[in-house]
Amino acid sequence: MTRSFDPRHIEFRSAHWIGDRYVTGPSALDLRRPSDAAPYATSPIADLAVIDEAVQTAKAALKTSGWATSRPRQRTEAMHRWADLVDAEAETLGRLESLASTRPISQSVTVDVAVTAEQIRFFAELADKEGGDVVPTDGDHLGMILSEPYGVVGAITPWNVPLSMAGWKLGPALAAGNAVVLKPSEMTPFSTLYLAELAVRAGIPAGLVNIVLGDGPTTGASLIGHPDIAKVSFTGSTLAGGAILRTIAETRIKPMTLELGGKSPQIVFASADIGNAAACIARGILINAGQTCVAGTRVIADRRIAGALLDRLCTAMSAYRAGATWDAASDFSPIISERQIARIDAIVEAAISGGAERMLGGRRMARDGYFYEPTILTGVAPDSPALTEEIFGPVLTVQIVDGEDEAFALSDHPAYGLAAGIYTTDLGQAMRAMKRVEAGTIWINRYGRSRDHILPTGGYKSSGIGKDLGKEAYRANRRQKSVLVAI
Ligand code: NAD
Predict the structure, then answer these.
(1) CA distances from 7 to 12, 34, 186, 265 (A)
(2) Does residue 134 form part of some domain?
(3) Any ligand 1 atom below 6 A from CB of 439
């Protein structure tokens, strides 16, 4: 059973992880705990010299370990040992996650750590199953497509679910035979550092997983631009995704995958099971206090059921217990920072000034830390940032429509297309929705990621380029070489 913990007594290292050791550097970032706003750590910022050391360590480890060239099942076995160690260290990893991030300890151990171990196992199993191809050519030739790792992958992750994001990046890159230099978010680096330490303890050759700490513009940009980083794998905001593209264009063109932001709609049709829809929508927006890329923030409800849905939503969204991430009784997260909670408040206030009505919440909670009330807004003006921008907070907008066409039209965001929820008991309508709605993931009569890691995730439009998870993520960490042999 997961237990509460005292954040003052958690041990962690605030240093880069290169090869098999911590490398200290001058501290430049002050970190505060989101649950009580208390300062608790400082973090170094890796400069070009540190990044180069990490990249050269990764290159040397690839050469000496034979990671990419020895029997692929050896990668599978080493990664399985790593996943077992992650499970065995679940309480320690979960505490590190809940210390720095917004994930409550009740979820970080049983969900985040468990999912990370599963993802490592999922990708480990692809190492000796996915490969190249022999293709049809004329009889005088043999045509082959070889599948090869890139070399050193540069990965960057966001702060909102740090461990799982590290699993998304490290799992497929390592299974596919690469080494990785990963920069976690400057706000939540500690669980990722320990994950890397566990990789070495599990027998993954030292130097294949390296973690450099620092901010985006200094460390992140230098990592991406490093000439020996062969492939970039990024998860974060659409804004930072644009900066990554600029860096790649200005330094050296290289392949990249970008998993970016969203503004996901949830359409509730008249035939829907309203109780189920309300429970799924409440969970979909309140998990991590709306700080998930797939937060289902735009509810679009048929006029015939809108009143009943709103009543149920208000009840469901009032049932969450806000509390410190280290308190095992809390299941509602704080917001990551003072800056972000001020931004949420400004967006809600602007919506109210523009004519919207607060059906629930809509204010900062009167308690320590950065907690914002579960919020429902109706009557929001179409050009309000509450409807157009990713809020990354526990804020739902509800728009009322008459019929399918209006619902589909409204669901279509000009820039984002990450995920969407559809609630209906009409099979034909579900099928039409699945085809009409523009998003990389559609959930029908449910909302949120399952533990089916085979389903790839990624955005339409500016929500991203390429996929994480699934076989697609493994393939994205390998490159294809065409070979034609004259017989
Ligand atoms: P962010 O974009 O501010 O930062 C993400 C990471 O990028 C951090 O490590 C940051 O240091 C780094 N970074 C920032 N600017 C950079 C630059 N110019 N060059 C290189 N690196 C840079 O995002 P965040 O606030 O940490 O996370 C929240 C965002 O992540 C949301 O937009 C959310 O939707 C998105 N996200 C997307 C997915 C997905 O699968 N699509 C998953 C989780 C989070």
Answers:
(1) 11, 12, 19, 37
(2) yes
(3) no
Contact 59/179 with Cβ under 8 angstroms?
yes
In a domain, 86, yes or no: yes
Is 457 among the domain residues? no
| Index of the ligand 1 atom closest to the CA of residue 340 | 25
Give CA–CA dist 444/223, Å, rounded.
Answer: 39
Residue 104: which domain range? Answer: 7-260+463-486
CA dihedral defined by 4, 7, 9, 13, rounded to 10 degrees?
120
**48 and 185 assigned to the same domain:** yes
Please state whether the predicted TM-score (pTM) of the whole model is above 0.90: yes
Answer whether residue 142 is part of any domain: yes
Which of 97, 118, 259, 404 is catalytic? The answer is 259
Give per-residue pLDDT as tens, 375-422. 999 999 999 999 999 999 999 999 999 999 999 999 999 999 999 999
Tokens 């109706």, residue located: 378
236 CB less than 6 Å from ligand 1? yes
